[in-house]
Amino acid sequence: MVSVRPSGAALGAEISGVDLSRELDERSFEEIRKALHEHEVIFFRNQKLTPEQHIAFSRRFGALEHHVRQDRCRPGYPEIFVVSNVIENGKPIGSQDAGYFWHSDLCYAEKPSLGSLLYAREVPMKDGTPLGDTLFSSMTKAYVTLPEATRQNLAGRKAVNSYLHGYSRERKSGTRPELTPEQKKKTPDIEHPAVRTHPETGRKCLFVNEGYTTRIVGIDAAQSDAVLAELFTHLKKDELVYRHRWQVGDLLFWDNCATQHRAIGDYELPQRRLMERTTVCGTVPYE
Ligand SMILES: O=C(O)CCC(=O)C(=O)O
Hints:
By secondary structure, this protein is α+β, with helices and mostly antiparallel strands. The chain has one domain (3-280): Double-stranded beta-helix. Helix content is 23%, strand content 29%. It has helices at residues 26-39, 51-59, 139-144, 148-154, 163-171, 181-185, 221-235, and strands at 3-6, 13-16, 41-44, 73-74, 77-84, 87-88, 91-92, 115-122, 125-126, 129-130, 134-138, 158-161, 190-193, 195-197, 204-206, 213-216, 241-244, 251-255, 259-263, 274-280. The strands form six sheets. It has an eight-stranded mixed beta sheet, covered by helices on one side. It has a three-stranded antiparallel beta sheet with strand order 17-11-19. Strand 4 (73-74) and strand 5 form a beta hairpin. The longest helix is centred in the last third of the chain and has 15 residues, at 221-235. The N and C termini lie far apart (37 Å). Residues 83, 98-99, 105, 134, 261, 263, 275, 277 line the site of 2-oxoglutaric acid.
């Protein structure tokens, strides 16, 4: 039987009573979907999943993306983006520095992702404590706790999201190759509403992030910088955040409209971290 235990933070809940390696009946699936909409981040402990099972569960929520960086996907599985610091035969097996800035996945695409499912295969440890936690912030709560004047200021506004901006910021860590002209062509800058309505729950969600949002459209650059600085400070507040401490076998599903996240890079080889992500396709944002 599906059971849901809220994390006690602003968002996040543990789901137990399900084995995701087996096909789920419709009723359990609907309970999981409901929990995702209510808690915005859900996780399942102690799952033993093959890549096929990870993909099959993810597909219940929609079609899956093929990441623009196919060189960082699991060989033979274009749907599985690898986040890892592991080097094999002199080559990184995944993205070594993914998500060190607050962001939501594919916010720079015409149709940002509905949600992502990250599966923990190896978790770095130090003196018995896991490292490499991930932070999640609730964008529904971030929106409703903004000052009324800021909410009014954002009404009807668009913001520019730029993959190239985010990629080049993370590239400064020195582990990323230059994007090919073809990869750049696939990821032009895009404007989305600064506040979007969740397509399933109808709740308003703040939709700007430090990783990829470069400016608010229709106001001058200094004003835009000030507004973004206020929003970026606000959305990191402890009362909006859930911190996930990983265990091997966790499958964690975050909603990319209702949340954003940031990975903590507080580990290094020989502490190995190996995570695999599927990314569910989403829809065009509207206010
Ligand atoms: O590795 C993590 O904890 C999160 C990685 C991330 O930000 C992503 O896959 O979008």
